[in-house]
Every structure is written in structure tokens, then in C-alpha cells.
Amino acid sequence: MTTIPTPGRLAAAGLLRHDCPRQRRRQVVARCSASRGKYFSSGKEPVENNPVTPMLQHLVYKIKATGPITVAEYMKEVLTNPAQGYYVHRDMLGEKGDFITSPEISQIFGELLGIWFISEWMATGKSATFQLVELGPGRGTLAGDILRVFSQLGSVLKNCDISIHLVEVSQKLSEIQALTLTEEKVPLERNAGSPVYMKGVTKSGIPISWYRDLQDVPKEYSFYVAHEFFDVLPVHKFQKTPQGWREVLIDIDPQVSDKLRFVLAPRATPAEAFIQHDETRDHVEVCPEAGVIIQELSQRIALTGGAALIADYGHDGTKTDTFRGFCGHKLHDVLIAPGTADLTADVDFSYLRRMAQGTVASLGPIKQQTFLKNMGIDVRLKVLLDKSAEPSLRQQLLQGYDMLMNPKKMGERFNFFALLPHQRLHGRSHEINANQSKPSPSPVAGFSELTWQ
User: What's the whole-model pTM score?
Assistant: First the structure.
């Protein structure tokens, strides 16, 4: 059992988000509410349902010039191309967007993650300073909920110097994050050419900085959070054939000049090196960029301490074809109208574990339902319901809880995975002398049941 401070202050009515009426009325819709069957095949749609988008034109020119491209290159272009990328110039989150995430559904999600970081900070000695680093912060909703918990438990954190660091490539989303998180009376510092392209102060007075790359975040004692971040990193897709593994590429359909199709590479390609020698599946997706980020996180945590908490769609090395698109909360053919829909692939947590290479310890993946239950979501829901007199708000809380916990919705489709220093789990056995007993580190919240006091 993991023990954390009394939740009395956390449960205070002041912890309720100051939602505007429109936010309170929002429908609880989730990206995973759509069917998640196989979606690798393409080309069934009639030509009139395949509008020629600027991104499609760009890709056709590119393929004509250099030949078929990998799925990874396709994802990178479609999602983050500086001129036409899906993530770069639009707000795709929320009821009016193409998908909605757990923090947008219920404030409880972010609050419990805030408790997780405080619990880990306490379990590892209450460092005098720490950075909270979020990868892909969306609209800033999750960071806002975590910061509210930090404020409510200010007496616990009063001697700790906290700073917020957001890694965000989208200029549009960074502006929305700033509106969500910062004090409007304190102007933002902007420097487009600097690794820290924006700086400010949060509403609770904490310094906050924006970066385009994790590498630019200072290497100091940090807690990292990545929620629905890894699932949009570019994947290479491979199919097993009688000739061995062949990479799935994207080419122009010879029958229709402005239509794309999947083809198999005629020979082995370099990314094949990422496939395990003993792989038994006949179709695999590998994400080298995820591996690079996990190695960077692992080295940072091993060097300076802290922890990383990752929550995402995923599996433990069991699934095959998970590449799919979402538009207007519905599944969307990945090759149709590129640039107008989100592209995603389930995270292979077994690959993330391998990429940590033993530099740090890993926990999970465990189902979101289990993690949130261990974190005390039922207790927190009851407190909020008791504090809420407004029927529409109570209904929103119950709907949000169902979306997060129901196995048929998000409860079993999302997983939690953590990276921690080895000594966090096993104690500093190399410091033990003959007169000392082995340390007994406290269990990690969420991955074991949490005790509310």
C-alpha cells in the first residue's frame, strides 16, 4: 500500500475546475469510442470521397520525385509538416475537433496524475526542486489539473521550487496552452529562434517554458508525463513474406493519379533492423523515434532522478496492424484527404521496455482502469459528487468516470507505463554495510493500491 498526504485539501470544493457553461455542457466523446478493427487496407472509397488536399498534392509531388515513401515518413509529413501539417496549424482537440482526450473528459484524471507525482516526490526524498515536463501537452488541460493539485497541496510542496516545461511542436496548440495556464497580466516572452521559444508564469506563479524538442529541456531532477504522445510518433510497418520481412510503403495508385495506395518494398529496408530476431507476428509496427525518446528519458532519470509516467493506447508486443486515422471522432481511411485527420498507431510497450535497455526500471503496462482505481478514483468521485449540487455537473462527473473506467471505452484500451531509477524499486543496496538492513522502498502509487489517509 502506498500512503500519501491527507486528501482533505485535495477534495476541497476549490479543486473543481472553473468551467464555463459551454464546457460543462460538452458531450463526453472519445477518440477510442470508434471501432478499432483492422484499418490497414485502403482504396475502397470512391474517388469523389477523396478530395485533393494541399498535403495530398505535396505527397504526390514528393513520391513522383523520389519514389514510394515509408509509413513513418508519411505520418511525419501529414502530422508535422511546417506548412500543411495536421498538428501545426489547428486545434484538433475537443468536441469540435477530431478526438478528445482523458483530461478533457474529467478533471479527476489530471488530479490523480498530480497526486502520483507528489507521491513519487515524497517517496524519493522530497527534493528541494523539481521540473514537471510534459511531452505533447494538448490544450494544457492536463497540466492545469496537475497544477491545481500542486496549489491545493501547497503546504506539502511549500519548500519545493517547481518549474513547468512543455515540449510542443505546434504553434497553435502552444498558444492555447498559454491561454489555459498562464497569468494574462504577465506578458509572455517570445523568441522564435531560441530552443526556449516561449516563457511565462502560470496562474499560480510557477515559471513555465516551451520547447520544440526534449533535448532542449534542462537536464535536472524532473518528473515527465506523456499522455497520448507516443501513439502519434511515426511508425514503420512491416509484412512478413516468403522472401522475409518487407516494409509497407505508400505509392501513387497507377490507375488514379491523385490517389495513394500501400505497396510492399521489393527488398529489405534499413528500418528492418528494429524488428526482433524472434518475432512471431506476421505484421509489425516499429517506432524508432519512440525508442530515441525513451532512451533520452531513461538516461536523464538515471542521471538526475525523477520518473516518467506514460499513458497511451497500446499493447505489450501482441498486436499487428493498428495504424488508423480519426476525423470528427470517427475512423478515417489513413490515405484519404491527408492533412485533415489525425493519424495514430498503438504503442508497443514491450518495445519501450527494450529501449530503456536496463538503464532504468520500468513498471507496466497496466490498464487505465486498474491504475486509476489504485489511485483512488472512486474516493475522489464520491467527494466531488458530494460537493456538487448542480445536476448537470454531477451527470458530467458520472459520464466522465464511465468513459475513463468502462472496459469497453477507455478503461482497458489505455495503459500506464512508468520509468523510474532502479534504486526507487530495489533500494540502494550498494550503500548497505554489515550493520544495516536492506532499505524497503515504498510501492509505487497506481501500480499498487494507494491508501488514503
Answer: 0.86
